[in-house]
Design brief:
It contains two helices and two strands.
């Protein structure tokens, strides 16, 4: 589970977001953004959208670096 995003009602599917972020870490330029399912309890949609819009990548030392063990 990812500690960078809050868990909220009607958030993005955590498994899908985590898988996408792992793929993004492996290939930051060739990973198109998927459409995430909205589930009863998931990652805060605004936080995920903001994070992806800012272009923060797991390998650049940003907030996701600890999630990926960088």
């Amino acid at each position: 589970m990812n500690d960078a995003f809050d868990i909220t009602w009607r958030g993005y599917d955590r498994r899908q977001v985590d898988e996408y972020l792992r793929r993004l870490a492996d290939d930051p330029t060739g990973t198109p953004r998927p459409t995430f399912d909205v589930v009863l309890r998931g990652y805060d949609r605004r936080q995920v959208d903001r994070y992806l819009a800012e272009g923060d990548r797991p390998d650049d030392g940003g907030p996701m670096a600890s999630f990926f063990g960088s």
